[in-house]
Each structure stands twice: as C-alpha cells, then as structure tokens.
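Allow me, if you will, to draw on your knowledge of protein folds for a short while. The matter concerns a single protein, recorded as an amino acid sequence and a row of backbone structure tokens. Kindly check, if you would, that the fold set down in the tokens agrees with what the sequence suggests. You will find the record immediately after this paragraph.
***
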Amino acid sequence: MMGTRPKTAPRRQIFVRCLRLLRAFGCDLLAVVRPDTTGVEQSCTLSVSLEIAASHEDLPGARTALSAGRNWSHWNARTKLSALLGLRSGRATQYRELSIRWAALGWRRLALRTGCRMQFGHAGECKSAPLGSTKRRRSLVVSCCATLAVLTLSAGAAENSSPLTWRKLPPLPDSLGVAAPFAGVSGKTLLVAGGANFPNGFPWQGGTKVWHDTVFALAAPDAAWKAAGKLPRLLAYGVSVTYGQGVVCAGGSDAQRHYSDVFVMRLVGEELQFENLPPLPRPLANGAGALLGNTLYVAGGSETPEATNALQDFWALDLAAAQPQWRELAPWPGPARILAVAAVQDGAFFLASGVELFSDADGKPARRYLRDVYRYKPGVGWKRVADLPHPTAAAPSPAPALGQSAFVILGGDDGSKVGFQPIAEHPGFPKTILAYHTITDTWKPLGEVPAARVTTPTVKWNDDWVVPSGEMRPGVRSPEVWAFKATARKAAFGWINYSAVFAYLLGMVWIGFICSKKNKSTNDFFRGGQRIPWWAAGLSIFATMLSSITFMAIPAASYLRGWNLFLANSYILITPLVVFVFLPFYRNLNVTSAYEYLERRFNLATRLAGSVLFMLYQCGRIAIVLYLPALALATVSDFNMQTCILIMGVLCIVYTVVGGIEAVIWTDVVQAFLLMGGAIFSLVFILVNVEGGIGGAVRIATDDEHFFETVNWSWDLTVASGWVIVIGSLFHNLFPYTASQDVVQRYVTTKEQAGAARGIWLNALVSVPAQAVFFALGTALYVFYKQHPVRLETTLQNDAIFPFFLMSELPVGVAGLVVAGIFAAAQSTLSSSLNSIATAYITDFHRRLWPAQGDRSYLRAARLATLGVGVAGIGIALIMAGTDIRSIYTTFLEVLGLLGGTLSGLFLLGIFSRRASGRGALIGAVLSAAIVFAVRYTHPLNVYAYAPIGLMSCVLAGWLISQLFVPARKDLTGLTIHTLKRSA
C-alpha cells in the first residue's frame, strides 16, 4: 500500500544490504594511510554496532551507527577494514595475501584490532550467517581467534622477508664443484682455488675424496672463468681473506695431513704469484678466520685429520707490520671447536657455532654441535653474547657484514640430519639465514638462501657477497656460484605525511614574509631592531644549538653506547661565566659582530682571522646539518636525498633572506616546540609499546649496561672517559656561547641586557632536560628493538635508527610531524648560520671594503650574501651525498674541537689579560691551530680533548709571545675584565 512503512523483515534486509555495500565499497578503496589507534577501535565498534542493531531490529541504533560511519575517521577505518577482509575475493588464501600486504605496510596493530570482522566458512569460503543467531555470535568469536592467528603469521612473514637480493654468477668450470676452496679478490678479479670433491663416485658408492690445486679466475660477473694457475700444493679446508691486492691463505689440508703454511696469492696481469708469510704456530684445518682492520684472526680447527679433539687456539697476524709475526691470544671461554663461523662487525671479531670433537666408544671422532657465540674486542677481550637459535656449523665464513651493526649466517649444518639414511636421499642442509645485531644482541631469521651451501668461504666482490661452490649435502658439491647484495627496504611516506611536512615548510616561509615587513635596515636584519622578547631569544639559542645532529645523532649515540655523552651537559656550569662576563662586553660595546671586540681589543688582523675562522666553520656546519637528515630520511624512506637537501635548503634560504634575524628567531621558537614535541611524543609512544613499560625498559637498559655503567673514569685522552667528556665539554660548550656569532648575535637582539641574561638562563635550564629526552629516546629505541628484533632493519646505518623508527612504527600524520621536527632541527641551525655568516661578512668585511655605501645597499648585500652562502652550503651537501661518513656526530664534534678551542682562546686572552697584544694573540692563535692539527694527525685523541688543547695553547702562547712584543699604550677601558667597571 502506498505510504505504508515496510515491514520489519524488509527493513532488516535493507540494513544487511547497507552493511554489505559498505564492505564491497571498501574493497575498491584500498587505504594508503594508517589511521590512529582510537579511530581503529571506534571503527571496529561501529562495525559490530551495525550488525547488532540490525539483528535486533533496533532501527534507531542502526541509524546512529550508520550516521557515525559518515565521520571521516570512522569511514576511513571502515573502508580499510573491508579492504583487509577482501570480502569480494571470498577466499581465505586471498585474505592471507591481503593481510600480508597489510602487515608489510606497517599496519600490524590495525590488522590485529580489526580482525574481529573476519570469518571463515567451510573449505576456505567466506559465508554469511544469519544476523543475530547463536551460530553467528559463536562464529564471530571464532573468527576473531582465526584472524589473530592468520595476521600473526602474515606479519611474521612480512617482517622476516629477506632484504638480500640473490643472483647466479657463471658456474665453476669443475662440473662437480668443490668444497672448502680458498677464495678472495686480487685487484678486481675473483679467485677460487683448490678445494675437494668426489670425482670417482659419491661416498656411499665407494668414491674417495680428491683434493685439487687449480686456481680459477673470474674477471667480471658477466665474464667466463679461466684457469689462472695452480696452488703450491693440493689444498683445501683452510682460511682465506682478501687483503690489499691479494688473497691471504692460511693452513689447510690434503689427503694425508694438515698444514701451517700461510701465503698471499696475487694475480698480476696473467701471472699468478705467491708470497710466503710467517707460518701458523701449528698445522691447522677446518678453522675459522676473518680480517679485522689489518689483522688476520684465526680461531679453532684441528691439527690432524684423525684428531678427536679440536683446538682452542686463537692467533692474530698484523699484515700491515714491517715484519708480521703471529701472536697467541687468550682463547674464548667456551669449548674448542672446528667448522665455526667467523665474522667481523662493529670493531669486533665474532666466533659462532661450530662442532666440538670427542672420542666415541670406539675411540673414533664424534661431534657435538654448538650454538654458543663469542665476541672479541681488541684491548678488551672475549665476551659471550646471545646464543644462536640453532647450530650453524660449517656455514659460509666469514659471515657477511651488513650495514654498521649486523652480520648474517647463511644456513649451515644444524646437526639435525646426522646419521640420515639412506644418505643418497639426504634432503640437504638448512637454508635459514640468521641475522645477528651487535647493538641489541639479538638474532632473527632473515629469509632463506636460494641453495644451501656449507664448507665454503664468502668473498666481498665489488658490491656483492659471493658464495663460490660448496657442499649442498654430505658428499655432494655444486659448481654454482651465488652472489647477493643487501638492499635496504624503504617505507612509503604517504601523502598525509608529505602534507604535514609541506604545511610546516610553508608555515616557516610565511613567518619569513611576515617579518620581512619590518626589515628596513641592517639593524633590523642583523639585530631584529632589538625588539625580540627575552624568552624568544632564549628559545632561539636553544633551537640553534639543538640541530639535526642532536635530533638524530644523540638518540643514535644513546642507542649504541648508553648515556656516557650525557656527561657533556655543562651548560649550567658555563652560563654564569657567559651572563656575568661575556654578555656585558657585547652589550656595552654595542657590537653587531662578535669579532668587532677582537679589533677593539687587539687589531684588525685578529678580528678578520676570527671572523674567517667562524665563517669557514659555519659553512661546513651548513653542509652537515643539511646532509645528515637527508641521508637518514633517504635511507629509511622513499625520500630522495638530493631533493630533501634542496627543499630544506631553498625554503630556509627564502625565509632567512626576506625576514632576517627576526624571522630566524621566530621560526626557531616554532621549531623548538615542534622538534621537542616530536621527541617527547616518540618517547612516550615507545614506552607505551615496550613490554613492562617504563619499569621494564629501565630494567633491561640497566641489565645491559645502557646508562652510565660503562663510563671509564680514567685520564686516558684517547678514549671517551668520564673525565675527558666532563672537562672537554666545558671548553666545547664555551665556544658557541662566547665566540660564535650565531649565538652571540642573540645577545644583542633584546632591548635590555637583563632580558638577554634571562634568555641565556632559559636556554641553559631547557637544554639539560631536553638532552635527557633525546638520550632517553635512544635508550627506549634500544629496548624496543631488543624486544622486537624482527622489526629492526638489518642493513640500517646507526645514525638513521630514529628516522627508521618513526617511518616504520609511528601512526600516519604523526610520522609526518616528527619528520617535520627533523627538518625544523636542521633549519633552525641552518637559518642561524646563514644570517650569522652574512652578519660577519657585512660587518667585518663589506663595510670596510665599501665604506661609502648607504644602509640600504648594505641590506641588499646582506641578503645576497645569505643567498650565496646558502647556495654554496646546498652545493657542498649535494657533494657530500655521494660520500660515506660513518659517524656524522663524531665528525661534527671533531671539527668543533679543532676550530672552536682556538677561537675561544682569543676572546679569553683579550678579556682576562691586560698585557696581551694583538701580534701576540694572532701568533698564538696560529700556533694553537698548528698544535691542535699536529696532535690530531700524529697522536689522535678523543674528540673532546682537542678543544681544551686549542684554548689553553692559544691563551698560553698568545700571552707569552705578547711579553716579547711590548704593545703600544692603548686605552683598554671596557675591553678587559679588569677595566669593565670603568666603562660608561
């Protein structure tokens, strides 16, 4: 009947159809972003509410649920839910594929929490149950459990997928292949020599093992193998490493005996040459060895073919010594072994797995497979680290090193098939790749090798690791030669994250244009018209010092070594000196450039030398603070490094050129809040997601000595001892607050001296807790990845650990904001450097060269100088993008120590000594720089030791030389600490 409302059953069908339409429509809207956790929970609740309301014919409730679905966050999560379930596909196998894809995108939490909507029918078909039935409710519960299981498996599959890309090289000319050859690289040619096989039949057919001496050479991956010559004898089962232009071969055996011979094999043109080295202390075969620096380490093995006990000897040979000799070192604190796997990573030698020999009841050699692993650090000794999940005896050795903190063991014999019969049907050795992370001391599976191989070396050839030939199962070799390359997996950043970053960048440019309206003179451009509030000046100093180096390298340093470097926080100790001594000089003299003081106190040459030294340092700093975040972000995401450098640099140049120091300070204020907000959010996010929360994280970090437990309180200047850090940091931190234009310039931007003093105190009070946040962030990252080793990228560079975490773990949008924080950290330093260099150039050089120009001309020159320096810095950063710098933070500190100490010494000499002359100060600075660089290149010290040496040598040399050259009488009123009170 027209106008009559439909009956209850049709209404119910309508809502069921609506629900199905929502699901189907969601299949066409595969999500590109990851919603926040709250949105996921609300979406899951919404989905259940729809069905419950429909099943109970609760029309108002259903309408409310559907209405809520129009909300963007709910609808967004709802479409992802449908995409995950793949209701159109109707097959459980496709569900699994979708869930694997889901987990691979990093949406593990979403996949788990929305799994309550997934249900399986019989035979893998997805079927609907009548809404509201008991069977339906039971199936919902069962489907939750099933989904959790599937998603757990799929997440593991996604995370354990190997980043190793394998390919075949031309096979060896020996059709059977060989086991235990020597291998390495001579020049650019891959050499594989010797080995053993069964050419007369397999062992179970009565065949006997035959040793070989042929040396095969492969000039290029697409070339053909050639016979290059022969070894001095039939030989296999020794240790081989590439060193210089040759292959060092140590030990080995033939059918009758083991040997102690050590020689270098080189291919010179078409001729194979050999050079003898000191022999091993005793005959050795089946040992493990690797090259750490210039030193070859050899461990374990056996002395004779019939030995019923392995060796526990550990030897070292310095190949760079004029007369190399083997040194016997303390053995590892575990069983003697043969067929162990050696590795070198993070400045240490590792010995893993192997086989312990003992006599059986008949007196014959028997084997016990081992899982223990040991680390040897020169000068420190042995330490047992995490055991392997299973034995990996005779795996290709040395184990390839990946990134800066990992190595991988490629298969190996786990002993599970010992005695397998019939031996002719042996399934082969395990293929599992195990990755060890030296920082978190954890193992994780990393996929599988394409073909199992044991008793064969590995060789680094160009960018590939090569596994030549080897044994595929007992008695059976293979001529195949496999090569792999490690490729870092990068996360897609997504348009929402990009939008957050670009919104931040545009906001900074907008601030620059707002401030440009007030830039009418050089006083506005260089000193902000002295209208900056004290708190803004203080936060600007804080943001300037808290660069991208701090934002990423300090968490990385804490993640690697603990809180030792936190001892460098001496800001509170030097702040009184800055406030009560240095600040009055700059304010009373009314200087624009800090180096104006050097001219008034000494002479023009000293001023120009100090200004040039500062500008050179800042130019290098500009390149580093652009390069570091670009490198880190490009390593872990789809950011292009060059594009990242250009975006950060160009937009920063824009707002600095148009807005001057005022734009620099106000953008610094925004950047300070953004970068600290990102750091604090990340820290809280990690602690919420670690097992045991804050207490558990502290307990793990304490047990693993990841706070101050490893601080060495010796006076050894070559290491980062506690005293070196504490005392050295006083001199390091003195430089920016007393002699660096980018910080000193803030002192003259406030209206009064008292305001500038409050700003300096604010910076000191904020800096220490801020540093604590970054150190805590690194410790939290350590705990998180120790608990979740499968989520840590194996090929990761250490400096990129924080960007990697935010790309792979943080929710969408938030990751973009934290990346914006990294940009902010870089730009706060970059803008300060640009403006301070322009200030120093115009004030110290340009005005002197062109004294008759007007103020507008100087303002135009300042903007051109800012532009020119910015472009040069971007260019240097782009050049650096093609280099490999292991630790940017260490490099930065070293530069600061080498240049900053001398410059600080000039100011201290002038302020505290009335008898220091301009000539003496200048000569003292030159001698100081020479002393610092001489120490650096003859007796390298810890980076914190250079600043004290530079400062004290500058002051001492400058004062002594000043006594030789009696200065002309000069009015020092207001120029020294002794005459400051007489200043007007």
Remarks:
- The chain has 25 helices and 30 strands.
